[in-house]
Design goal:
transmembrane, electron transport, 604 residues, Cytochrome C Oxidase, Chain A, 61% helix, 19 helices, mainly alpha
Length: 604
């Protein structure tokens, strides 16, 4: 049967149930500086969708340069002539482009769209709470994103096209420390670091709120092992953030001190920085890598675990089956998070570490494959024998699993020290993390947008447009990033504006052109998503409370939910995945539906 029934019985218009606040408060307080978790989640979602387009535009600029080196210049000739006569790109500007592309995508898209948008919107609804534990702190977590956006933008323009932030999103010293030696670049890199600090403050506010809300505000009967996988993903992610983020924040302040106060946390002896006395050095550049990756490898799972939970929810809804191995799925999420804290050194195999230490990081990294395999096979087990309904959320969820498998398998290669020594800083690495962070995470996000859009706005997105967006994105993504594996094995390095000056790489130029055309297809396909999203927000067909016939607690609330979310305090009787239950004639059994116990044979 078709479950996307756009029933109007029980449908609620936007006027019937405003997204946030009490009716007597004004527009600004209700929709802009709102403390209602639903409005804040939608604010995060719209902001990150717009930032996605900005980050995509930066990526297309990078790809164009690699496909057609220097051909967008107004003149031809020597690179110095390009710069002297006002060329619109230079090797320095190219470095700024890929630095800001990664910055926008990681700090302003993937992390806030999962933890900020879906975390804010779904956590109270899925656990039966009326709001977050700290509504004002929740509002501040969103508004701290805007200083970060402004500072990132300012850092990109403050130094011109040759002196912006150009140390990569990892901002390794001493590169980030000596950037101030270039005219105008000192302030841009400093402003970039301040922006990262604002993002960190925003994330920490959210993490504290999520943990407190999930622990203390669950509805009656909502035990830990009756929570949906989405909530488990958000909960474990919040724990990761709270333990790892202070390390990066402290390291960021140390770099700022090196740049502005003349300290030497990361500046080695004999290096002149900010006109300081070279004899006062003695810091360790490698210390930054340890501190940075101690946060940033768990951050990979901060950008992945919520999507894993969301995909689990969507797969069950459209396979019409219970989740295969619920408790092993929970334990594997926790195992992935725990192991993620002890593998940061695999980013540093080429730094000269002790081989015994490298072996330790290698083995612990490979161990992550075990809980990842549990999740993968359990997703396949959920699909096996199910009554599959290929809606847009389902297609994106299946793509998530497929891309996660490809990215995970390539990760096993890089976990081996001798292999990593060869492919480190090659395009094989770029392919791997794009398969994990774009191919997996963003396909999960795209599915989640279509799945929970009816709950957000009381209207349905156009499924045919959604499927077209999925097909074009899937083709464009694999055309772009699968090819990067071939480039990496062939030896093409990252971060070079024109690697084809090297004779052994000249033959790779046609592959780069193919990748660029694929990236353009993928980029322009996102306009379908934006158009479908904003059009359906106002003119999509109205729907009832539960257009997908799903079991989660959020579908018991009106669409869109009013202030306070539920008509009455929900009481939970079972887990979230009771599809095709023998206790009911329907193929789904909501968590709040009470089923009287059946008398045992031989009793009265």
């Amino acid at each position: 049967m078709s479950i996307a029934t756009h029933d109007t019985a029980g449908a609620h218009s936007h006027d019937d149930h405003a997204h946030g606040g009490h009716p007597e408060i004004g527009f600004v307080r209700k929709y802009i500086f709102s403390t209602d978790h639903k409005v804040i989640g939608i604010q995060f979602l719209i902001t990150t969708l717009l930032m996605l387009m900005v980050g995509g535009a930066l990526a297309l600029a990078v790809r164009w340069q690699l496909a057609f080196p220097w051909q967008w210049m107004p003149i031809a000739g020597d690179l110095e002539v390009f710069k002297d006569q006002g060329g619109i790109i230079s090797p320095e500007f190219y470095t700024m482009l890929f630095t800001m592309h990664a910055t926008v995508m990681i700090f302003l898209v993937i992390i806030p769209v999962l933890a900020g948008a879906f975390g804010n919107f779904l956590i109270p609804l899925q656990i039966g709470a009326d709001d977050m534990a700290f509504p004002t702190l929740n509002m501040l977590s969103y508004w701290f994103m805007w200083p970060a956006i402004a500072l990132f933008g300012l850092s990109f323009v403050i130094g011109g096209v040759t002196a912006g932030p150009a140390a990569g999103w990892t901002s390794y010293p001493v590169l980030s420390a000596i950037a101030s030696a270039a005219p105008g670049s000192g302030s841009s890199q400093t402003v970039w670091l301040l922006a990262v600090t604002c993002v960190g403050v925003s994330s920490m506010m959210g993490s504290v709120n999520y943990m407190t809300t999930i622990i203390n505000m669950r509805a009656p009967g909502m035990t830990l092992f009756r929570m949906p996988m989405t909530i488990w993903g958000m909960f474990i992610t919040a724990i990761l953030q709270s333990f790892a983020l202070p390390v990066l924040t402290a390291a960021g302040f140390m770099v700022l001190c090196d740049r502005t106060l003349g300290t030497c946390f990361f500046v080695p002896a004999g290096l002149v920085v900010n006109n300081a006395d070279p004899t006062i050095g003695g810091g360790q550049p490698l210390l930054w890598q340890h501190l940075f990756w101690f946060y940033s490898h768990p951050a990979v799972y901060i950008m992945l675990l919520p999507a894993m939970g969301m995909v689990s929810d969507m797969l069950c809804a459209f396979a019409r089956k219970p989740l295969f191995g619920y408790k092993p799925m929970v334990y594997s999420l926790a195992a992935i998070a725990g192991l993620g804290f002890i593998v940061w050194g695999h980013h540093m195999f080429t730094s000269g570490m002790n081989p015994a230490l490298g072996m330790t990081f290698m083995v612990s990294t490979m161990m992550i494959a075990l809980p990842s395999a549990v999740k993968t096979f359990n997703w396949i087990g959920t699909l096996w024998g199910g009554n599959l309904i290929f809606t847009t959320p389902m297609l994106n969820s299946v793509a998530f699993i497929s891309m996660f498998i490809v990215g995970g398998l390539s990760g096993i290669f890089m976990a081996a020290v001798p292999v990593d020594l060869y492919i480190h800083d090659s395009y094989f690495i770029v392919a791997h993390f794009h398969y994990v962070l774009f191919g997996a995470t963003l396909f999960g996000v795209f599915g989640g947008i279509h799945f929970w859009f009816p709950k957000m706005f009381g209207r349905m997105m156009n499924d045919n447009v959604g499927k077209l967006h999925f097909v074009l994105t899937f083709i464009g993504f694999n055309g772009t990033f699968f090819t990067m594996h071939l480039l990496g094995v062939a030896g093409m390095p990252r971060r070079l504006a024109d690697p084809f000056n090297y004779p052994y790489l000249e033959h790779l130029l046609p592959l780069n052109q193919f990748m660029t055309y694929s990236a353009m297809l993928m980029g322009f396909a996102q306009f379908l998503l934006l158009g479908n999203f904003f059009y359906s927000m106002f003119w999509g067909p109205k729907c009832g409370r539960n257009p997908w016939n799903a079991n989660g607690l959020e579908w018991d609330a009106p669409s869109p939910p009013p202030h306070g979310n539920f008509d009455s305090i929900p009481i939970v009787y079972r887990g979230p995945y009771e599809y095709s239950s023998p206790l009911t004639d329907k193929d789904y059994l909501p968590q709040t539906e009470y089923i009287p116990p059946r008398p045992q044979p031989g009793t009265t």
